[in-house]
Amino acid sequence: MATRAEKDQAIAGLIEEIKDASVLYLTDASSMSAESTSNLRRACNKSGVRMRVVKNTLLRKAMERVEGKDYSEIFPTLAGQTAMLIAEKGNVPAKMIRDFRKKGDRPMLKSAWIDEAVFIGDSQLVMLSELKGREELIGEIIGLLQSPIKNVISALQGGGGHKVAGLVKALQERAA
């Protein structure tokens, strides 16, 4: 049994790990063999995901103490064995889990906390794996914003440029 000081130290360590994380997945990796668990850890490392098996009560206490974040919606999923996955991008752990599960049925997604949005249950895994990252969304928005400008420029540069020039000339003559 851990002493109070050891538990407080473990909670403080968890707080440090999660306080700046914007992507947090909680998974059920129970009934996985030691070899499968090692393979999961390797897959996490390869994907840039930090994995840590945690005690539910200690994680809950750490989550309650993180200022400015409300994890309460995922508290009901803190049951059984829990492996916590922390990543930079919201879809990376889901993609990694989906690829890993081609060889088995674990780990199962309990819940995910991504930029304060909460996703509960393994049924969310496919949708989460298809989430677009911030950079992808910004790229799409820039592409959409540039699209009308490109159309105007191509109209001016192409055969339509003569039409525009003709319209401008006709408007000048009309004004004069």
Q: What is the approximate shape?
A: elongated
Radius of gyration equals 26 Å
What structural class do helix, strand and pairing data support? alpha+beta
Strand content: 15-25%
Q: How helical, in percent, are the residues?
A: 40-55%
What's the tally of helices? 7
Taking the alpha carbons of the first and last residues, their distance comes to: 94 Å
**Text of the CATH class of the largest domain:** Alpha Beta
Average pLDDT score = 85
Strands in their spatial order, largest beta sheet: 2-3-1-4-5
Description:
This protein has helices at 4-18, 34-47, 56-65, 92-100, 125-129, 134-157, 160-175, and strands spanning 23-28, 50-54, 82-87, 108-114, 117-120. With 176 residues, the protein is α+β, with helices and mostly antiparallel strands. The mean pLDDT is 85. It contains 7 helices and 5 strands. It has 2 domains: 4-131, Alpha-Beta Plaits, CATH 3.30.70.1730; 135-175, no CATH class.
